[in-house]
Amino acid sequence: MAGNSQRQGATRKTSKKGAAKGSGGQRRRGLRGKGATPKAEDRVYHAAYKRKKAAERRASGAHDRRSTDVELVVGRNPVIECLHANVPATALYVAEGTKNDDRLAEAVHTCADRGISVLEVSRAELERMTGNGMHQGIGLQIPPYQYAEVEDLIDKTAEAGTPGLIVALDNITDPRNLGAVIRSVAAFGGHGVIIPERRSASVTAVAWRTSAGTAARLPVAKATNMVRALKQFQQAGYQVVGLDAGGDHTLDTYDGTTPTVIVAGSEGKGLSRLVSETCDTILSIPMAGWVESLNASVAAGVVLSEFARQRRAQGVQGE
């Protein structure tokens, strides 16, 4: 019969598909219960899970380095720079299997000579401590900086027997600027630096490195309220001088031999309104007309240098 032959080409072929009947059990499986919803602290992607694990580590005595105030300087060149600058370090971490070179060898030998612990950890542990994999197999642990009080600066400069010279920073958020200012204050015989407690760069490892180690000897105070701190210095007999363009004095005409607080603002925002209103004088630095401004560390360095020259000329320069 036509269409029933087994001969090739004689078999009737159809491409029609019948209507699908049912879902193949998919709907039934979808309706099947999945059990109780896990607690938030048992879901690995939930913040409650991370909090629970952190609590378990604390309870077991494990040391979560990321939850402390210590900081790790990572990378071979930054570590060497910190060691050259005599930044006070407490430990050097080296990842297992790290390829040795002159920089790593110098870091290890320097730490050994200074009595700084050299600890070998797994690469995964070092990545956990640093939060990234850009450590080049090495990390230097820096303890939190011990800030002075504003009152301490006033008292210590009074005891020094020379006119105080302080730099206060307003709206400075770059730690490299802070480190450079600390270095300039130390170089030109200043007595300390004041930074705001909020919205300001802190003395981190970057600031330590930029200061070339002078942060170890020059006090840095944190002020809860900068305006209040400046008024404390005014009550102690200081002139508060803000640096800004178009001031009522220029560096060429100002006498910097009396107790002085130099207030430097950021290159972009300058001095905040309340800080500017608190200053006794706004001082500008004579510059070429086509140069708009200097950054805080350069401006502070220029003024410090001139005030130090004036004090040397009158024999009132401090140590």
UniProtKB/TrEMBL annotation:
Record flagged with keyword Chaperone: no
Task: Name the residue ranges with Basic and acidic residues bias.
Answer: 56-66
Q: Which InterPro entries would you find in this protein's record?
A: Alpha/beta_knot_MTases (IPR029028), Ribosomal_eL30-like_sf (IPR029064), rRNA_MeTrfase_TrmH (IPR004441), SpoU_MeTrfase (IPR001537), SpoU_subst-bd (IPR013123), tRNA_m1G_MTases_N (IPR029026)
Which chain regions cross the lipid bilayer?
none
Concerning Gene3D superfamilies, the annotation shows: 3.30.1330.30, 3.40.1280.10
Question: Record keywords: Transport included?
Answer: no
Region Disordered, as annotated, extends over: 1-66
Q: Which UniProt keywords apply?
A: Methyltransferase, S-adenosyl-L-methionine, Transferase
Show the GO MF annotations.
RNA binding; RNA methyltransferase activity
Q: Where is the RNA 2-O ribose methyltransferase substrate binding domain?
A: 72-148
- A Gene Ontology CC term for this entry? cytosol
**GO BP terms in the entry:** methylation; RNA processing
Tell me which domain of life the UniProt entry assigns to the organism this sequence originates from. Bacteria
Q: Which family does it belong to?
A: Belongs to the class IV-like SAM-binding methyltransferase superfamily. RNA methyltransferase TrmH family.
**Name of the protein in question:** 23S rRNA (Guanosine(2251)-2'-O)-methyltransferase RlmB
Q: Origin organism of this chain?
A: Corynebacterium falsenii
Gene name linked to the record = rlmB
